[in-house]
Amino acid sequence: MKRRHVIAVLMENESGALSRVAGLFSARGYNIESLTVAATHDPTLSRMTIVTIGTERVVEQIIKQLNKLVDVVRLTDLTEVQFIEREIMLVKVRAVEQGREELKRLNDIFRGRILDVTDSSYVIELTGDDHKLNAFLDSVGRDNIIEVVRSGATGVARGDKSLKP
Amino acid sequence: MELSGGEVLIQALKEEGVEFIFGYPGGAVLHIYDALYEQNSVKHILVRHEQGATHAADGYARATGKPGVVLVTSGPGATNAVTGIATAFMDSIPMVVISGQVTSKFIGSDAFQEVDCIGITRPCVKHNFLVDSLENFAETIKKAFHVATTGRPGPVVVDIPKDFTAPGVKVPFEYPKTVNMRSYSPAEQGHPGQIRKAVDLILSAKRPMIYSGGGVVLGDAAAQLTEFTELLGYPITQTLMGLGAFPASNKQNLGMLGMHGTYEANMAMHDCDVLIAIGARFDDRVTGETSSFCPDAKIVHVDVDPASISKTVTVDVPIVGNVSSVLEAMIALIKDTKKRADPADLAEWWSIIKNWSSSDCLAYDKTSKLIKPQAVVESLWRATKGDAYVTSDVGQHQMFAAQFYGFDKPRRWINSGGLGTMGFGLPAAIGVQLAFPDETVACITGEASIQMCIQELSTCLQYGTPIKVINLNNRYMGMVRQWQEFSYEKRYSHSYMDALPDFVKLTESYGHVGMRIENPEDVDAAMEEAFAMKDRLVFMDFQTDQGENVYPMIEAGKGHHEMRLNPARELA
């Protein structure tokens, strides 16, 4: 059965490291839902969060193949443990007449922030996991959405365990 | 000591004990070539095409176990090398490729002879490095050799911009003694618990089968594999890449398995109850249809690469580790215990196997008026007493060589198994002959494959490599023709080799000896004559039967038990 997995990868912060990961996924036909990457507090290391959907067997291969990349220092499948997932989303929505009040209410319910206001639109910032962001978009309704920008998921395990080199 | 980048490279190669560097000069590596000119410790072999350089370095690496080293220029030099790099990658061959790159300030400007060598080679290397400063060049070379030769070996590319090798720019040189890479630590010893579990399973088998691959050759574990197999008394089969790691002449050997494997090896695979896979990767040419692969077997898999475990076939007892150390640990455990497979079960299993063997699946028509390719390989075996280094190209001749030249030693059989690269055989033979000038080296090829790197005949003359080229010339791309016969109703679309050169004259014009052999009764005498010319390259153009096919054959989508056998067996 296919399942969504969130994989955290610690890798050498070197040019080309990202393309090795991206290339691996495309060359082997693995699915990539989202991928985020940035340097960590240790500037020699980057941390990447990859969201993929696959069967146990495929995800096991993805993890092994990622581990095989010489630039990859350590990785973990966060979905195997208790973890926190967050993604940031900026949504530009059409906000006119009565809709303005309704959107404001929705924004409060989802604990979003309105960053920009014009006569006809809002830009709303929302943070949460995949489900929450999707639920917000469903509530706003496709017709009202002008633009959506999502960062892709980031994640960290609960408790004091960490991904260290 | 202060050295320029070019000198750093030469000095580093010296430190690594590199004997030969196979290459071709060009603009971006001129500084390096100038540094090469000044020294004698690393011998440069000038090929005629960069693909030849990579295959020659590859052949050298396969025969010696040491990394092959290549030097090419930027742009077309690098792209020409890609086929050879991918060939080495698919067969896990240790290789270090130094490629020149345009001057660093021009990178990304579409400069003359610029390609993104790191980008192009990324999917077919174990790792690659773009040198970004002269200061860490030596360390990068050290890392390249370390990564190429440890764990599951593979090719590593080091791309160096021209300005970092300029003679006027010098840095203090000290070659690092050790490598520290936090992100790279290949497995060594297998997990003791897994090894114990594997041995328990192995000793409880009723119908055991050992299946070994190229990992045993690469891991220098032939002696351990032989001891392990003899200790257990179990049947063994090898993959195309694993031939020679267990002596072909040993009575426990069932020969090669897979698409063109023997009837007994494939049937034993299908019916075994415990499969012991050692340094093999369950390649599609070996497994056939995976849904009918070893249906009754529990599988033990020993491999140095964790990603090889359960990749195409799910295994029951995986052991990640160096093949030789895992085999040693298993041998020790087996010797320590009194438990053995039931001798009655084993005897019954062997009698079933003997029955399969009696089918004589490799028999061919020996009465033919035409030269049979199988007969040429058998004649070669006799002429070289079964002790030559044999390289091959890709196609029918490769399969005939694998089936009919019984290899008793590892590293003697050198072919492109994974990528299946036509053009591999001749340049690979150059690398082997340079490594072992006093050994006999034969290249079994076909008239199609040989033309893909025939320019290297010139390299052979320059460096005096007395290779014997065995050209099985059937005027067809034989394997393509065979598939077209079986699967495309004999529509031989573009597989006929028209307008062939006169290979004898061609060879002579390259300064070598050419022979054309047309009759079966002349084969042995020609072979004797050619191998008597110890210091000459002899190109033997055998005019072989155009209709001969490689049997047995497992066609696409079929299982091990569904082989197509040679209809001519009754004539034998």
Search tags:
heterodimer; A: 165 residues; alpha+beta; five-stranded antiparallel sheet; four-stranded antiparallel sheet; 4 helices; 9 strands; B: 572 residues; alpha/beta; six-stranded parallel sheet; 20 strands; globular
- Which whole number gives the mean pLDDT of chain A? 96
Structural class call of chain B reads alpha/beta
Estimated radius of gyration of chain B: 24 Å
Q: What is the number of strand segments of chain B?
A: 20
Low-confidence stretches of chain B: none
State the distance separating the first and last CA atoms of chain A. 32 Å
Number of helices of chain A: 4
Major protein interface: A-B, 20 and 20 residues
The largest sheet of chain B has its strands arranged as 3-2-4-5-7-6
What's the quaternary structure here?
A: heterodimer
- Return the average pLDDT of chain B rounded to an integer: 96
- Beta-strand proportion of chain A: 35-45%
Q: Could you give the order of the helices and strands of chain A?
A: EHEEHEEHEEHEE
**In angstroms, what separates the terminal alpha carbons of chain B?**
70 Å
Q: What is the compact description of this entry?
A:
The complex is a heterodimer of chains A (165) and B (572). With 165 residues, chain A is α+β, with helices and mostly antiparallel strands.
Written description of the protein model:
In chain A, strands 5, 6, 7, 8 and 9 form a 5-stranded antiparallel sheet that branches. A 4-stranded antiparallel sheet of chain A has the order 2-3-1-4, covered by helices on one side. Chain A has 165 residues and is an alpha+beta fold. The longest helix of chain A is centred in the middle third of the chain and has 13 residues. In chain A, a hairpin with a 5-residue loop joins strand 2 and strand 3. Chain B is an alpha/beta fold. Helices cover 35% and strands 16% of the residues of chain B. In chain B, the strands form 4 sheets. A 6-stranded parallel sheet of chain B has the order 3-2-4-5-7-6, with helices on both faces. Chain B has a 6-stranded parallel sheet with strand order 11-10-9-12-13-14, sandwiched between helices. In chain B, strands 16-15-17-18-20-19 form a 6-stranded parallel sheet, with helices on both faces. In chain B, strand 15, helix 15 and strand 16 form a beta-alpha-beta unit. The longest helix of chain B has 15 residues. At the A-B interface, helix 1 and helix 2 of A face loops of B.
